[in-house]
Each structure stands twice: as structure tokens, then as C-alpha cells.
Write a structure and sequence with these properties.
Layout: E1 2-6, E2 13-17, E3 22-26, H1 29-35, E4 40-46, E5 50-54, E6 58-61, E7 70-73, E8 80-84, E9 91-95, E10 110-112
Parallel strand pairs: 3-10
Antiparallel strand pairs: 1-2, 2-5, 3-4, 4-9, 6-7, 7-8, 8-9
The chain binds zinc ion (2 copies).
Length: about 140
């Protein structure tokens, strides 16, 4: 797989090569902030094949939250491009909506942190879900 994507305004672009290590939707309360309310849909790719090809994104990590993910975003338009997880040190979690062609994602293989689900969230049939799950 050789995929490209970027933010809404086009200032930040990236390329990722290799096979997805993980395809999931995360219902956690933190992700709800960055999606606007719905689950976050991400694809894990090795950071060996990942690079930014244009622009420099900003990063934010909440210092008072244990195990907090680092959120990588465009400082111009605010689009969140990646999540970096301490439990996935060799990979990046690409936010599927920033892919040039989001359809390459296919379907998530798992739904996680559903304990934080809102009543308007949807779970997919045939996709296993976990109330609390740590990406290993
Ligand atoms: Zn942007
Ligand atoms: Zn989450």
C-alpha cells in the first residue's frame, strides 16, 4: 500500500507505505473532541514507511492524563492528521478522513473504548468491540 493524505487546507501532506497494522474505530471520550462527536477511525501504519512530504504539523499531548496520546494536527486549519500512542511506539495512527482516498481503509477490524460510547454512536455488525482495550 502506498497512500497519501493531508489536511483540509493543504499545508501539511504525508505519505505512508506498507501494510496497515491496525484498523480500528475508537469511541473514547478524548477522541470525541477531535472528531466532533463520533468515533475516531484510524489506520495504524509503520513509522518506517511514513513521512511528512509538505509542511510541519503541530503536536499536543495532555500532560495531566496518564497514557495520553499525542495529537498531530495542522496549525493552519486545525485538521487532526495523526494520533501517536505510547503503546504503539513504532507506528502512527492515521486519521482515515485525511487520506486522499478514505475508501482504501475498507472497514475497521475492531471497535474500542466503547464504554465511552454515546447513544448516537454506531457499532458495526460483525466487528468485535471492547469496552476497554489497550492497543498492544
Ligand atoms: Zn491545514
Ligand atoms: Zn480514542
Amino acid at each position: 500500500m502506498d497512500i497519501q493524505g493531508g489536511c483540509y487546507c493543504g499545508a501539511v501532506r504525508y505519505r505512508a507505505q506498507g501494510e496497515p497494522q491496525m484498523k480500528l474505530q475508537c469511541h473514547c471520550r478524548q477522541c470525541q473532541y477531535f472528531t466532533g462527536g463520533h468515533p475516531n477511525v484510524v489506520m495504524g501504519m509503520s513509522n518506517v514507511g511514513f513521512s511528512f512530504t509538505k509542511g510541519e504539523p503541530k503536536e499536543y499531548c495532555k500532560s495531566d492524563l496518564e497514557g495520553a496520546r499525542t495529537r498531530v494536527f495542522c496549525s493552519g486549519c486545525g485538521t487532526h492528521l495523526l494520533t501517536l500512542s505510547p503503546s504503539l511506539p513504532d507506528g502512527v495512527l492515521i486519521k482515515v478522513g485525511t487520506l486522499d482516498d478514505p475508501s482504501v481503509f475498507g472497514m475497521p477490524v475492531v471497535a474500542i473504548q466503547t464504554a465511552d460510547s454515546q447513544s448516537f454512536h454506531h457499532l458495526l455488525e460483525d466487528v468485535p468491540s471492547h469496552e476497554r482495550w489497550v492497543v498492544k
